[in-house]
Amino acid sequence: MTTIAPPEPRTAPTSDPGSPQRLRPPLRWRRGVLNALIVAFVLVAIYAFVDIGVNPLTLYFERDDIGNLLSRMWAPRLDNVSSVMSHALDTFFMAFAGTVFAFVLALPLAFLAARNITSNSAVRAVARAVIVLTRALPDLVLALIFVRVWSIGVLPGIVALGIHSVGMLGKLFADAIEEIDEGPRDGVAATGASRIQELTGGVLPQIVPGLIAVTLYRLDINFRSATLLGIVGAGGIGLDIKVAQGALDYPQLLGVTLVIIAMIVVFELISTGVRSVVLGQESDDRSWLSRLIARRLTNTVATHKSAAIDGEPIDDDQHRPETPSVGKARTADLRPPWNRERITMYAFAVVCVLMLVLAPIKTGVSVIEFITGLPDIPTTFWRLVPTDFSWWDSTYTQRFVETVLMGFAATALALIFAIPTGFLAARNVAPARWVYGVARTFILGMRALPDLIVAVIFVAALGLGPKPGVLALAIGLYAFASKLFADSIEEVSEGPRDGIRSTGASPVQESFTGVLSQAMPSLAGNSLYLLDIAIRSSTILGIVGGGGIGFVLISASRLLMWDVLGGLLAITFVLVYAIELLSGWVRKQLI
Amino acid sequence: MNAVNGGVAVSVRDVVKTFDNGRVRALDGVSFDVPAGQLAVIIGLSGSGKSTLLRHLNGMHTATSGSVEVMGNDVGSLRGKQLRAVRRDIGFVFQSFNIAGRMSCLENVMTGALGRIRGPRYGVLSYSKTLRQEALDQLERVGLGDRAFQRTDTLSGGQQQRIAIARTLMQRPRIVLADEPVASLDPEISGQVMDVLFRSCIEDNITVLCSLHQVDLALGWANRLIALRDGKVVLDAPVDESLTHDRVMEVYQRLDPTGEKTAEYQAPRVPADTGTPVGLQLAARAAHY
Question: How would you write A108-149 as a 3-class SS string?
Fold first, then answer.
């Protein structure tokens, strides 16, 4: 006989089920810290609201001033159309050349920073430090500095975008390299390949799709940034914004703004299309328009791919009997077939090279100019190393505190509106399909507004100070946050929702208990990411009069006060890095 | 034991369910009645229509034709509030547990009460003390009272399923539908989970419809066996000495796909004797293990 499995030991009914302590979750250290941080965030945000004078209804209360300005802006006008269009084209080439520049620098840097490639920990640490540092320097500030080296024009913009992008590209590339499957690499190494061959044969093929995806995404971001760089004299369409703002020519300001919005929307659609063709993946943007385009493109790719797969074996069978009998390889068989995928990749490469050739022709930037400026770079940066803090006084402290408060206020404002929007824009939670479609399209439209330009308009309507800066920043963050939230809500698994629905819970109860509980870690993580971005952005809002440290930064750079500029940048860096470390820690606690 | 004897809990009449515009026939004229208090087990191979059938009973699927009545309600015609009111009385235990892994065990159990309270809830402390006490009692019943504030995804599969059962009991259901509750568990844990599920349902006088793969477990627990094949009922018989393991296996596994012999295996359509002393069955099952 087999032994009888003892019945499940059940807790004795005498185990005191009723003691009140057992009905509350035990307070653990980690939980306590997280709760304290939530309380701290709310308190700081409320203080920031009071201090800056904003609240969730500010836009409504200020509707008169904003309406006034809009009526003065109406009807939009576009003088010097050819000059504006030329600047618009410059903007594109600036973003493109800057991204290529960043790619060239970031790829070797990423290999040096990847743990599974570089065994020397000192080299790795230096590479990581370069990545962190370049990411912490805002492209607008870099442009300010490089304008001193190469004078006003497109070149400082390209270099600024390039250097700043090295941070993000380097980090994401290094992550991609560290995540590779080691198998293929070992396979290549086992054939006796050299170290470089191992990297090109075993590592590179695995990361290429990731490299392309990340770089295209960065091109998108750089294009948005490039529209603003002209504000500090680095070329592109931002120049026209600055001129119109300086001349208080509001119809022209609106006209240029509309051109920028149109450019961003068109560029977004093109890049969505390119992404889905080159990477053969469906677009992650779910608005009506981009879904429509992306679907058509992926469909054609899919059919061609399957055609290629169907076609290949047949070709093989046809050729195989001939080849050995003839005894010489036919060159046609030694080349991969010109299938859709290969044609796409070649076309993509040709377009990239073509752009790279066109960029200097159109923008008038020459490599020689770039090289002649290079010797000045070390001295320029050396001058930025702060040696003397005698200029420091309490107004700087105030500016920094204001900068941080602006970041908190903008994040809180954005979150208040983005969480409900995120639920409406998530396919699996939205009350109806049309609600979801409208919400996604609305978010896409809002994301086309660069926050610095919104800030220019708000400063014009509400006067200088942190308030217009916070509102502009909050609008930009709101659109971004809504998209992040909607995406993470859509990733929630359906099982627990089924379970809760089967208990007879209402849809609202289901959303709270079944959806929110699952999405919470990513909502919290994304919120911290937003705070991170908000504080970074609020350091530069002052450049257009939106409050914070940016105003001092730009005046220090205009007056060539290198010590002040360097000192402020160093403090900004420490601040931003501290926030990043904190949010990284909290995100790790939330799983 | 069977206080509600006589009432019909579930009545399924000629239910046909097709998917893919009629290309797949998941249920093909299924009919049976389950009297209140009965422990019915539905067996059949994967794809025989067991899950589809159970999902009809709480309105997660709607029949293409035929009618499904649960406690006198035509489930297929109900929507929104009315459907939720019926679901409140029907517990559902899923094969994949369908509990929220990040939530504590206690909170997962308390979600079973959502149907009878108003408004959204988030976090343990958003539920009243009475509900927390009740949920803790249910956790004790499934033997996991000491895990109340542990995250549910730190538990083993069998324990997670017991949490799901506690959630179902928290609903105070009159019927429990269990969709292969032990299919993803090993045999020993399966026995424990079945023990918890059926013992609690017997205690609370809950009607059970449970789909299973394992004939042994079915014979050990059910007082009625319904076998499905290709969406048709091929066996419907009370569990007694005449229903041997071999006979069930014959139906279960080696029925000719043409369906020629269906009638031969078809037991007379009488509601099974619900009075079978379950205690004896428990003993029988224990001996079997």
Answer: HHHHHHCCCCCCCHHHHHHHHHHHHHHHHCCHHHHHHHHHHH
CA A184 – CA A264 distance, rounded (Å):
40
Going from the C-alpha of A530 to that of each of A323, A410, A447, the distances in angstroms are 61, 9, 14
pLDDT of A392-418, one tens digit each?
A: 888 889 999 999 999 999 999 999 999
Beta strands B90-93 and B175-179, pairing class: parallel
Minimal CA separation from A496 to chain B, in Å: 4
Question: How far is the first Cα of chain B from the last one, in angstroms, to the nearest whole number?
Answer: 25
Domain residue ranges of chain B, discontinuous segments joined by +? 9-89+173-288, 98-172
Q: Closest chain B residue to A516 measured between Cα atoms?
A: B122
Which of A2, A8, A491, A498 to mutate to test binding with chain B, by most B CBs within 10 Å of its CB? Answer: A8
User: How close A229 gets to chain B, by Cα (Å)?
Assistant: 45
Nearest-Cα residue of chain B relative to residue A591: B102
Residues in A 187-216 with any Cβ partner in B closer than 8 A? none
CA distance A548 to A399: 5
For residue A591, count other CB atoms closer than 10 A to its CB.
9
Superfamily (CATH) of domain B9-89+173-288: P-loop containing nucleotide triphosphate hydrolases (3.40.50.300)
Helix (H) or strand (E) holding A14: none
Confidence of residue A19 (pLDDT cuts 50, 70, 90): low
- The nearest alpha carbon in chain B to A8 belongs to B192
What does pTM read for this prediction? Answer: 0.76
Q: Where are the domains of chain A?
A: 37-74+386-591
Q: Considering only the beta carbons, identify the residue of B86, B121, B125 that sits closest to A512.
A: B121
CATH number, domain A37-74+386-591: 1.10.3720.10
Q: Does the pLDDT at position A287 exceed 70?
A: no
* Contact check, Cβ <8 Å, B145/A17: yes
CA–chain centroid gap for A346, Å, is 27
CB contact under 8 A, A7 and B286: yes
- A505 touches B at CB < 8 Å: yes
Q: How far apart are CA B274 and CA A488, in angstroms?
A: 49
DSSP percent split of chain A into helix, strand, coil, nearest 5: 80, 0, 20
Q: What are phi and psi of B26, to 5 degrees?
A: -80, -40
> Where does the pLDDT of residue A232 fall: very low under 50, low under 70, confident under 90, or very high at 90 and above?
confident
Give which of A314, A284, A313 is closest to A298, Cα–Cα: A284
d(CA A345, CA A371): 32
A75: preceding bond cis by omega (within 30 degrees): yes
The reply to whether residue A7 touches residue B85, judged by beta carbons under 8 angstroms, is: no
Q: What ipTM does the predicted assembly reach?
A: 0.75
Cβ–Cβ contact A119 with B under 8 A: no
Regions of chain B where pLDDT drops below 50: 1-5, 255-259, 261, 266-289
* pLDDT (tens digit per residue) in A441-464: 899 888 888 888 888 888 888 888
Compute the nearest-CA separation of B269 from chain A (Å): 30
Summarize pLDDT for A468-480 with one digit per residue, the tens: 999 999 999 999 9
